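Class, look over these structure tokens:
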Amino acid sequence: MGMGVPSFVQHHGIARALVQTFQEAIGAQIALRGALTQEEFTRAFDLMMDNWPRTLPLFARTCRGCQDGRTDPAESVTLELPPGTEEGRRRDFVTRLMYSSVTQKVPEIADPVTGNVFPRVIVPGLQANLTALFYDKEWEAMNADARSIFQLTRAEREEEVWPRVSRHPTLPVLTHALFVRVMLRFKQFHFQRQSFMRRMTTAVNARTFSFADEHFELIFEALFGHLREEIRTELGRARMDVRYGDETSGHLLRIFDAFDTLRKQRAVPVRTMGGAVKPPATVALARRR
């Protein structure tokens, strides 16, 4: 490229070349596995390349922001996290993305006594759990991917993230990859569930909010429930394995089986001494007395 070409245009071209190299490298493999035909794969990449010019303003903003010393554009996104959230947490894009999934599926419940609002009250515990699951370098790479999702969607509120992701030609794959990586950390489901509960209890003020099994079930389903649809069919499982590695779908199925078993066990009424029947636990904001 000539000397007069702006740096962001050069970066834009380099990124396009890398994507095209990626296409050439895995196209034959995907066709060989039978998850997609070569024609389908090529058509998907052609669609992405047709939309590639739309990403140029993002490269321009990023490069100019660096040159001018301005903040990363994604950091200006304002999600509704609990009051008192530290500024550093605004740069934790993984937790913000995961939490946006929770808010889409879990209605807010306010405790009239303490004023705590579930699920907002569990954000510090969610962050503590997510960061504990990965090494620093892994977390940095995931955070960079999550930041790019916020940059491309330009969502200003959590309810805007998922509709914009779903309308994007390529972001759903990148977004699901982050959720798959987190869920795969639950291969030892019962051990990881206990660790999750322990970290949540430590991070959340236990004097005013008690994080119970029913809260875990709500959060787990909100975070990963959408992946069930991805692996319901044989074709879906094949695509999952191609995108994220062999046996990925099998691991996810076993994790879901363990989770569903736990949920069924908790839904069964318990007969106590004397013959009384205790109903299954119900979700509530509990206050320690």
